[in-house]
Amino acid sequence: MGLTMGLNLLLLLAMVATNIISLYHLSSTLQSKPPTPPPVPDHLIRQLQTIRATINHLTRLQPSSTTTTTKPTKRTIPSDLLLYTHISPIASSCRVHPDMLHQYMNYTPFSLCPLDSDLAEALILRGCHPLPRRRCFTQTPPKPATSLPTNPFLNLPDNANIWNKYTCKSFSCLSRFNSDLGFDMKVEKLKFMSYKSDLDLPIQQLLQIAKSSHSVLRLALDIGGGTGTFAAQMKLQNVTVITTTMNFGAPYNEAAALRGLVSLHVPLQQRLPVFDGVLDLVRCGHAVNRWIPVTAMEFLLYDVDRVLRGGGYFWLDHFFSKGVDLEKVYAPLIGKLGYKKVKWAVANKTDSSGMKNGEVYLTALLQKPLSK
Length: 372
Known about the structure:
By secondary structure, the protein is α/β, with parallel strands linked by helices. The protein has 13 helices and seven strands. It has a seven-stranded mixed beta sheet.
């Protein structure tokens, strides 16, 4: 009995001693400062954010396990969408519209692509750009165009386009609907060629301005250029112009391409797909107006600055806004660029909308200074 009590006492003392030693090490560890971890590189943070956005996107595509329904439906993520997440990042905004993206990627690989360009454009306009690539073949018209126009102001062939998603089934129908849409070549041939008011800047005057400042116009970008008429007119002057355009209810991209022009199917919110400081001219047409959020407008202006070379020109053509906003918001915003004002013309917008909202037009030609 005495031996057993001795062993128990010995074990108790050992346990107490062990706890005391553990508490000592723990207190010393808490008192000492842990080493500062090295900073995480910015590029790694961006990669992690992309991966996280992709995981969140795929998670949203899967049905929630906590949802209680009488007949739960099991959704299968298209295999090509899962494959694409491993080989290329998906734009983070895609995860906000999982149903639309799921529909876009739900196709039959190695066959004809579905006629869903309107769905693709809807995703692009919501910031889901670039879209995931697909392994399918673009559908073409049943009969190829026998001859394509070499002059950008000749009538466009209807059989070179697929008209399934449009009410009009021909370019002549679009011209009758509204001659200002850019599909009536007789009307387009006269644009940018004459001077009717201070808001106009004819191409010959633009070329003369560049020549007088010992500058040269060779490469340009037309943002929101519709069917590419500005690019067509500049092509006749041996100036290469790329046009960004969207198919808002009509085949603007197809029309520009049929005219022998390069069109880029990109939204206004996308970073311009051009390298830094390589363009002689950037023009913003009717698409760039007051409906663009001010912050997005500011990013656009600074991206224009990024692609323009020193001495290059920024042409804001018929930009409209409320008169008070031009004075208090947009003029100071444009002024932040520090460009030389070659032309600055303001006039009232005299249509019904302009009169009702007190809107004005601004046409500005600005020249980028050389870096100091």
